[in-house]
C-alpha cells in the first residue's frame, strides 16, 4: 500500500536523476511511490527512468518546459499516497527520510499539515555545511520571520492539505517553497524534526543567482503575504540579493543590499561579515568560508 508519494520534477537532469531515484529506492520505509514528472526534457531523462524496473516508479512527461511548480502540481494530482514528499532531481534523501517523516506525521494531530527536517549542503563533492532545524512546532508568525523549513526537499505534508490551501503557485518567479509554507500556515502548523535527513546540491545554474527572479519573487510574496512578513524577513531578502550580486562580481550593488539588510535587522552578524569582505571576489570568498565555518560550529 502506498503511504507516501515522492514527487520529483525534472528538466534535463539525466546526469543527476539516478542519484535521486536510487536514494528513494534505498529508503528504509517501503510504502512509497516515486512520481517523476519530466518537464519537457531534451536529454536522456526518459531512458534513465526506463532503466529502473520497479513498479513504485511512475513517469509522467509534460510537453514543453513549464516550470518546477507546474511539474510538482502534476505530480501531486497523480499521487495516491496519504502523504506527499518532494525531491528535486539533483538532490538525494538519506535512508531514513521517509520512515522518520511518516512516523512523525502518524503521531501528530491533524492540525499539523506537515513536517520538515534539516539537510546537508554540497557543491559537487565539497561539503558546505548543514542547514539544521530545531525540534518543535512552527506557526505562521514564525514563518513571517524566516523560511524555517527551507527547500522543498525538507518537507513531507498530508495530501489533504492541497484540498484546503490549493495547488502550488505556478506564477512564483522564486521563493516557491516559502510561498507555499506561508499559505499552508494559514490553516495548519508545521512541525520541525531536529535531524538531518537529506542532501542538497547547489548548482551554478540555480535560480538563486537570478537577480530579476529574486526581486520578482519578493514582490509576489509581499502581494500575497505582506501582512505577516517582518523586517527580519525583508532584511533576509536584501541579504540574499547582496550575496547574489557579489557572486556575480557586482560588489558595489552587493554592499548596498547588505547595508539595507543591516538597517532592517541589525542583530544578524552575517551581513556585517560580507559587507566587510565584499571588496573583491577573493575577499568575498574568504567571507563565505568564514560564514560556513561559523555555521558548522553552531550547527545552523
UniProtKB/TrEMBL annotation:
Can you say where the TPR repeats lie in this chain? 235-268
In which domain of life is the source organism classified? Archaea
Q: Which InterPro entries match?
A: Glyco_trans_2-like (IPR001173), Glycosyltransf_2 (IPR050834), Nucleotide-diphossugar_trans (IPR029044), TPR-like_helical_dom_sf (IPR011990), TPR_rpt (IPR019734)
One Pfam family hit: Glycos_transf_2
Domain Glycosyltransferase 2-like residue range list = 5-118
Q: Provide the species name.
A: Natronococcus amylolyticus DSM 10524
What PROSITE patterns does the record point to? Answer: TPR (PS50005)
What are the UniProt keywords, alphabetically? Answer: TPR repeat, Transferase
One GO molecular-function entry: transferase activity
Q: What is this protein called?
A: Glycosyl transferase family protein
Q: Which PANTHER family does the protein's record reference?
A: GLYCOSYLTRANSFERASE, GLYCOSYLTRANSFERASE TAGX-RELATED
